[in-house]
Fold these 2 entries.
Entry 1:
Amino acid sequence: AQKVTQAQTEISVVEKEDVTLDCVYETRDTTYYLFWYKQPPSGELVFLIRRNSFDEQNEISGRYSWNFQKSTSSFNFTITASQVVDSAVYFCALSEAEGTDKLIFGTGTRLQVFP
Amino acid sequence: EPEVTQTPSHQVTQMGQEVILRCVPISNHLYFYWYRQILGQKVEFLVSFYNNEISEKSEIFDDQFSVERPDGSNFTLKIRSTKLEDSAMYFCANRDGYTFGSGTRLTVV
């Protein structure tokens, strides 16, 4: 069965520190997709990235970067030089290509960035 | 940029009352989803809807829940007789996982 684990419940950092949010997933499918979402205090879910299982290339977008490693079933998210505006809950999610593509979410990591 | 629109943003209802949550998904998409997030918890899949039929539902989606696309545009989630534990944020989404609506916060009192 599919499962997404975000072991870090809460992380606190001071502005300009780098921070990595961990995500470990389980799936029996060979074709699947991994996602990260940001949920700010206002409550909406903001899409950050989607990665398919055949693309293990790391991705960088500004201060954000993602490290996908199939060997360890991990899809970690790093924020470089964190800012107060990065404070939010971050969710990792998985969908499998077979079936309805529903998303299975992790329990989220609350990131607090202090000035 | 295409958006998924949900109304209302916040609804308060008395226990036992029926509520209808509305979503206008991105047009020309065929797959739609409802998710639920109890305050402080993770986002959970409720139901997927394809070609005017339920294609998959979770164990949360019991007989109290129903979904419809009554006019080919709006996509609704109905809760027939609300319970206190239905209090949550409800999100509508299109397929591909990219786009979620801004959510409806349902409070059952």
Note: DSSP finds no helices and ten strands in chain B.
Entry 2:
Amino acid sequence: DTEVTQTPKHLVMGMTNKKSLKCEQHMGHRAMYWYKQKAKKPPELMFVYSYEKLSINESVPSRFSPECPNSSLLNLHLHALQPEDSALYLCASSQASPAGGGRGHTEAFFGQGTRLTVV
Amino acid sequence: RKEVEQDPGPFNVPEGATVAFNCTYSNSASQSFFWYRQDCRKEPKLLMSVYSSGNEDGRFTAQLNRASQYISLLIRDSKLSDSATYLCVVIVRSNDYKLSFGAGTTVTVRA
């Protein structure tokens, strides 16, 4: 099973709303990612969790708040977003080797994404 | 300089043609390399990993040239269903699992 499941598939929210995006994988992967993708652009990294700890935050505004409750789940909490935050939000996971050791990184698998529209 | 650069294309080829394109990376500590395929409004899907010795999967061949710091993808006998954006992905070992994406190469196969 190489499936990463994201919910919801579509989300429309107002600028004062609070919502959460959810991501789940059961492949035993210990690295999980949030990416943002605008039309005709490649995915842009937002956050990386490795072994349930936040390891990379690509200077993402605080209105985006990630959470990793356990090794299978990754959430992205949204609050006070702007219309320019409208995009496809992709979750991904991969095997992870401890930094500085191991046989390297395996491929990442992506969820179908949440298409977010901020109105 | 961007970490990963790709020729954006588009490559517009007839069915049955061979198409090839490259991706260059700037960090010599790059460790793992992949090609992903992304269809319009869909998520990226792994096409193939790229190994040092080069590898082939059906009509697709990937090569890695560490000396010149590029990877390539060749598609033989193109099908209409090969039309997509192909994303080059590079992982630098010291960057704590960060996947760096190229901007993507668009391929359109016409009947």
Note: The longest strand of chain B covers residues 30-38.
